[in-house]
Amino acid sequence: MPGGDHQADDRLIAQVRLNIAFEQLIVAALSSAAVSVACIVLFRIGALIWSGVWTVRATFMALYYGISFGAIFFLLAFAAAALVGAPLFRALEKAKYRKLWPYYFAAVLAGFFCTSALGSPVSVERPANIFLMVPGLLMVAIFGRLIRPFWSAHPFPADNRSISIH
After folding, report:
1. What's the rounded Cα separation, in Å, for the pair 51 and 70?
2. Residue 109 CA neighbour count, 13 Å, CB half
3. For the segment 22-44, what is each residue's pLDDT rounded down to a tens digit?
């Protein structure tokens, strides 16, 4: 039975690692949403001031638009973290592969899918919609910074492939 206990321990450790990674994904989603809200509000208010049509009402509308975008982004990012990010983390950990490019690729695909589903896909006719993918890429960058110490603290055994964080 010692082999069975070892397998149960490995499964438990894998589940704890997955939970930690999921929590880091959610923190990254919240951080990215907050940065997105701040950028949208500041850019809109700056554009209003620059064009000379700034009003208090327009400021509140910029704030409303920014918060609405941030809320929608967070909900979609949460869903993407649960449906794509966590399974991707589990698969990559099982393969002993620790690089961020699969997460960036998944963020671009999820961003393209979400913008298409919401009616404003990235296309040749609307190239400015590429900026709608920036929060997802920022989320992956933040996730990379959050998960890097975790990956460094728990390297793979020496007989497997070496750890690669970048």
Report:
1. 25
2. 11
3. 999 999 999 999 999 999 999 99
Residue pair 96/158 in contact (Cβ under 8 Å)? The answer is no
Query: Cα angle vertex 117, ends 80, 100, to 5°?
Result: 30
Judge residue 66's burial from the number of C-beta atoms within 10 Å of its C-beta, 0-12 exposed, 13-18 middle, 19 or more buried. Answer: buried
The continuous run of DSSP H or E covering 152 comes out as helix 134-153
Weakest-pLDDT range from 29-33, 78-82, 125-129 = 125-129
How many C-beta neighbours within 10 Å does residue 138 have? 19
Judged against a pLDDT cut of 90, whether residue 160 lies above it is answered with: no
Q: Cα separation of 166 and 144, whole Å?
A: 8
